[in-house]
């Protein structure tokens, strides 16, 4: 028996037990994962999933952010997959050093592929080892497992090269192209068939050791990911390969989502032990390669928190306890999910762990106790009264800004957009500034919109904190109100509301088209309905933009905010972490409402990054980001300001401190009119006159059967000065003449009582004292007319405060309106009546007399004789509804 035969027999003997250990380990791995709880189907759209698998494996799309690492890993992966064919060839080459695979083993193509695989494997693994060990990624990982795998791969590659070089040295036949590298190695080797057999044995032995170790070490994800990654990619949440961001995975039991109706069927809620994990959760845990890419961009880890996304996954795999400090440090920013090369769904695991702590153990940070109660009782996380949500709307209306409000029972069919203001947009100072700027811009652009009076929190903080059923309760309330109003399209300035409406609510019956306010404003700028005045190069302000996690990384909205900032002429300086790799502000995952006592504050880290760009202002697109970054700026002592994109855009179109008058023609004929209990009076917008003319009321439009507001007289027609008069009708879009004096705003409307069966009768309006014309009048900024039900007429200066129900009306005397001087009508067109004096509104039960808005006063001029004009009929004033003073503090 010659030496090559002995070497071959030894090789077979040692590989047999190795194959036994590996196959037993593979079966154990399958059984471990299969024991997991059932979950929603992961096999829908199999061809799409197969395409995703091919794309991610063949083209390495998940590693493309780091080109060098991606290229080297691709070489190692191909060397492992195709090199298996060369590895099995070692069984033949140990017995017959000159032999190989029948038919193909002697072809030039096979030899060339063998050459590329061996050389690529060696080069690839050497570069990856340098990146791994010279950097910081090995810290905190199972470095022994990583080193073992790397050495095995290196020896496999060297084995392929040495076997081929030994054959050339012994038997000759090296080709200058096919064997472009191994023929040079062959010159260093002696001609020996036994040496070729030994090289083949080394190649086989390294693979054998690999099989034996991997089969007995089921927790070595760095080794098992070579097999499990294919399944994890194919079975990921989204068939198209999109990261598991946006919506959280539903709370499930036995493969069925749990709701308030069937929650009692589940013996346990969330994940508290390894036995509670789904099979996909176990597959995630065993697929983790421990590459630490998730950890590299984690805001908690990078600011000294104990949370490492990689360690959370490996602790789940190993059945270790995950402490409260680790669990509640997560901001749900999604950086870990975005960076993971094998599509592990970190945030869903964190959510299920939190659900168990909250719903099963009632164990959570003390700050969340108040937040949960406030959300349940008050509908906002700060515990503010529900009626406070409308305070900014009333102030805007007092300032002459048209902000239509949809009350319970109103229809949204007459509006293009429902503006969802959100808790921060209604109650936070910076959020209110953004909301005010947004409605001003929408008015200037002539956009038809309304806000919902019955808004309550979308429930995002509750769900992200693990209180799933509180979220479902809030979501059901909002969806019921939105669907009852017939809302189709929602625009919001809050990135968290945007994400919740877009991705969470469809699972509960809320299907809407959702736009972030930067998307809508960018569209309006592109369409020419908003025209910012950019600064010249010498006056440009250097700013930077912070990507909100739930707008950017979760929903891939990166360009609209930047395009808006560019339109204002700002000099945009990007932070080191931006777009998909943007650093979180620290507010997500309900962290906005928890103290940050461990490590450095995340907001301080991000503010320092922003200040390092030299920017004088940080542009934001989320009220939570605004609050957190302002805190970070103050903490760091920086002079940088924080401003929402909408505020910057509004400021860029101001003319002499005022918004320009830009009426836009609306095509609302196709939209069905709302159906209130009494016919509304809403004058339509006048068309811009082609030539100077006297004011002539236009005919009512088809959509709104009321008289149109008369056009403002031009200065070319001399008319006497007329005082401005208050009007109870909704504000109309301004005429294009910028010299119209601003009329006195109507009195603040009363807040309705939603629980009342019949709306309360409105109080009689109190007209304001006439304001004489000035030499330089200011242009008002009204917007589109607001179709409202009869109950929404303006009330007396002292607004009624809602209670649980509407108290029975009393019969006080009707307050007498202040007598105003009758304006002298302008020169009329023979076919048009003169402008009548506005009358008090009629009670909701009866028909209302159409009352056109009086023409705006013009500068004093010699009077022109005009024919007598009959006075308009004056209906009886309604009897006001009184509210007991004891109910003034009642919360809605």
From TrEMBL:
Organism: Corynebacterium glucuronolyticum
Composition bias type Pro residues, residue spans: 673-683, 707-721, 730-752, 779-788, 796-815, 825-841, 851-878
Keyword terms, alphabetized: 4Fe-4S, Iron, Iron-sulfur, Membrane, Metal-binding, Oxidoreductase, Transmembrane, Transmembrane helix
A molecular function (GO) term: oxidoreductase activity
Name of the protein: (Fe-S)-binding protein
SUPFAM superfamilies listed in its UniProt record: alpha-helical ferredoxin (SSF46548)
Domain 4Fe-4S ferredoxin-type, residue spans: 279-309, 318-350
GO cellular component, one term: plasma membrane
